[in-house]
Amino acid sequence: MDAIILQILNGLDKGSAYALIALGLTLIFGTLGVVNFAHGALFMIGAFCAVTMQRLLTLSHTVIDPSQTDFLGNPLQTKVPYLASVFGTEGAQALITWSVPLSIILVIPVMLFVGWAMERGLIKHFYKRPHADQILVTFGLAIVLQEIIRAIYGANPIQSPAPPMFSGSIDIGEYLGFQANAIVYPIWRLVYFAFSAVIIAAVFAFLQFTTFGMVVRAGMADRETVGMLGIDIDKRFTLMFGLAAAVAGLAGAMYAPIVSPNYHMGMDFLVLSFVVVVVGGMGSLPGAVFAGFLLGILQGFASMNEVKAVLPGIDQIVIYLVAIIILLTRPRGLMGRAGVMED
């Protein structure tokens, strides 16, 4: 039982990232009808926003410290963060250790702008083009963004540690009545799951209970009728593209302590996220979220040593096997609308 619970937690951890990226992909496809293969790059940019925030907070200047001297008795030069002049040494250090959560302040405006620029500058010209053209141009854009990140930050992964109070592990089994150390799990992964749940709930609440969201949902169902009512639905869909980019960016920023940001991490998640979208149903927001967590949990169980001993490598292909079965039996996906992806 403890192994099962541990794999469920692992699945929820992976599923959280899958669900957030797939949610943004589905928002774009459902509103604009665009298959956006650059969405994984948005996840990567969000992760590097966390790296950027860490570097901004650690910007330092050199000062003479008379309390420290070399072997000749000369005072040493030390680097002091600029934040120390405002918040003091301890306050500055505290802010630096919280750079990943604080990066949310940077991620939201940056990703909204990136999403708006992508949609207005490139993708709007491909609305009426075949999906193959959309895939090609957005995949090319993803490669360009990937190479820009590599040119700026280098090719090596960059560590972005979680705040000290969340960097350890917690004995969950002890709270569930198991033996000590039976189910030990990293705290930040639990934080990431909770964060993902909040973001997903916020997106659904925004679409369900706000006037803007209701108009968007109406536009997704019948764009022409909404336009005939005098509503500029195109402008609202552009804002939704920015919102989808922000969701992907937030997912990437908070994932930085789990997987050190690198320039190809967007591609690593992109294919899996598209599989999640197809399994859940193209255009179905609940389907994207459900499929994300479902496939994450299945991948978690497939990675157990007992399973891999019987079926070596199953953890690498289980998601694709599920996708094949779903598409053969239900081409529209688990919660997809009739007619979508069936022609």
Can you offer a commentary on this structure?
It is globular and about 80 Å long. It has one domain (2-329). It is built from 15 helices and 4 strands. The mean pLDDT is 84. A two-stranded antiparallel sheet has the order 1-2. The protein has a two-stranded antiparallel sheet with strand order 3-4. Helices cover 68% and strands 7% of the residues. The chain has helices at 2-32, 39-57, 84-97, 99-102, 104-121, 131-153, 172-175, 187-209, 211-221, 223-228, 233-255, 265-280, 285-302, 305-310, 314-329, and strands at residues 60-69, 75-81, 169-171, 184-186. By secondary structure, it is mainly alpha-helical.
Topology record:
Elements: H1 2-32, H2 39-57, E1 60-69, E2 75-81, H3 84-97, H4 99-102, H5 104-121, H6 131-153, E3 169-171, H7 172-175, E4 184-186, H8 187-209, H9 211-221, H10 223-228, H11 233-255, H12 265-280, H13 285-302, H14 305-310, H15 314-329
Antiparallel strand pairs: 1-2, 3-4
